[in-house]
Design a protein that fits this description.
Layout lengths: L8 H21 L1 E12 H6 L3 H7 L4 H10 L4 E5 L4 E5 L2 H4 L6 E9 L4 E9 L2
Length: 126
């Protein structure tokens, strides 16, 4: 009785290629590029959808002062989109610090995996 030996090299290459594609393809869809509009806030106020509580506890007189105070105390900058109620944590505070408390349009990309908005440019929204 003869035993036929199967060549397993080709199926392994196929499996490896599939594994690579499965890791690369979802990563490319995790980034959403475009324009994001909302108010520059600190993450905590953005999640509460208001500066009211923090302004009282921080003694801040306006949204800008509240945002900068919360970030100084360890918070992160975020963009709050009131239309969708979405909070986007922002990765580069240097680009948006001057817009604290203001309504802006950010051009960039949002990474679903890290939940971070990568900023290319910022402009005041009208």
């Amino acid at each position: 009785m003869a035993v036929k030996v199967l060549n397993t090299k080709k199926p392994m290459k196929h499996i490896s290629l599939c594994a690579i594609l499965l890791t690369i393809v979802p990563a490319s869809f995790a980034q959403k590029s475009g324009t994001f509009t909302g108010e520059i806030m600190d993450q905590q106020c953005a999640q509460m959808q208001s500066h009211d509580n923090m302004m009282k506890s921080e003694g801040a007189k306006d949204a800008k002062e509240c945002t900068l105070s919360c970030v100084k105390n360890g918070g992160k900058f975020a963009l709050f989109d009131p239309a969708t109620k979405k909070v986007y944590v922002i990765e580069d505070e240097k680009k948006i610090r001057q817009y604290a408390g203001q309504r802006v349009q950010i051009t960039g990309s949002y990474d679903d995996n890290s939940e971070v908005l990568h900023v290319k440019s910022v402009a005041p929204a009208h």
